[in-house]
Amino acid sequence: MSTVFIDRKDIEIRVDGNSISFYAKGKKDGSLPLSPLKRVVIVGNVKIETSVLYKLVNHGITVLFLTGKLKYSGILNGPLHNNGLLRVKQYQKSLSAFSLKFAKELIKRKIVSQRDFISEIREIKKALAMQADRAIEILNKALSNIEVTPISIDSLRGIEGAASSIYFITYSKIFPNSLRFLRRIKRPPKDPVNAMLSFCYTLLHYEIVREIQLIGLDPTIGFYHQFEYGRESLACDLVELFRVNVDRFVYELFKAKHLGNRDFMKDEESGGVYLKKTGRKKFYPLYEQWVQQQRTIWRGEVQEFARRILEEKDIISG
């Protein structure tokens, strides 16, 4: 197991040699060796000794902190790749024509993946054939517009937004009505499907952040997502390539009845719907099983991007 999710508020975490141990009410309640770990995800309010954090950092283990409602709170990394040249090249290319070139490639690939999944949906639910055909027609038109019209980052965002809208209209139709999933709603999620999409997108984002940092790139300097203070814009860029993978995974979770309405709760104050602890207990091993193969793909994409940053010729805009 390369990732462990710590989601118990009644425990305290301590160092125990080359392991971390868990204590409940002063008594040892299990331990975990550090050697196979790559990531630790801490959910909610957990007591943890600073020596544990030192140990995790020294072993190159990434720690992701999430709130009890599964929102991002912070990230802690061990030693990162100090590749100064790679970052200099990244900064240069962010000011060059490479930004628009890369952004066009990115959104084309995203729309193609959406179109391909819509084609699968057409077979999954035959009653959606006409709607799926219409969605595919619109997505093909979006791909054509990227090639034949004068494109800026702003106009590309408009094309992407319209494509995602038609995609989600069709995607929502493959879920049972009992889940109340009608469209994509982000903050807060209003139904179980939106809750899982948001949670899985969050996990994907910080998986990508980790790969970006480990190779020596700056996660804050993006190309399609321009610089915005406090945002990992490059991670936002690369996440776009894999959103449909998440969408397919979330669909399979509900299709196989791994999760259902009973696994979610509604926060009366915000109106948001969130995965309950019992649901999270079921979700974590399913996510880890799915993500093992995905990580190889994600890492390869980051490595290919770093190669392009170093090798492609710079063309300065303006």
TrEMBL record:
It holds the Pfam family Cas_Cas1. Keywords: Antiviral defense, DNA-binding, Endonuclease, Hydrolase, Magnesium, Manganese, Metal-binding, Nuclease. Mn(2+) binds at E160, H225, E240. Its EC number is 3.1.-.-. Coiled coil: none annotated. InterPro entries: Cas1, CRISPR-assoc_Cas1, CRISPR-assoc_Cas1_C, CRISPR-assoc_Cas1_N. It comes from the Bacteria. GO terms for molecular function: DNA binding; endonuclease activity; hydrolase activity; metal ion binding. It is an enzyme of class 3 (hydrolase). One of its GO terms (biological process) is maintenance of CRISPR repeat elements. Its cofactor is Mg(2+); Mn(2+). Homodimer, forms a heterotetramer with a Cas2 homodimer. Belongs to the CRISPR-associated endonuclease Cas1 family. NCBIfam families: cas1. CRISPR (clustered regularly interspaced short palindromic repeat), is an adaptive immune system that provides protection against mobile genetic elements (viruses, transposable elements and conjugative plasmids). CRISPR clusters contain spacers, sequences complementary to antecedent mobile elements, and target invading nucleic acids. CRISPR clusters are transcribed and processed into CRISPR RNA (crRNA). Acts as a dsDNA endonuclease. Involved in the integration of spacer DNA into the CRISPR cassette. This is CRISPR-associated endonuclease Cas1. It comes from Thermodesulfovibrio yellowstonii.
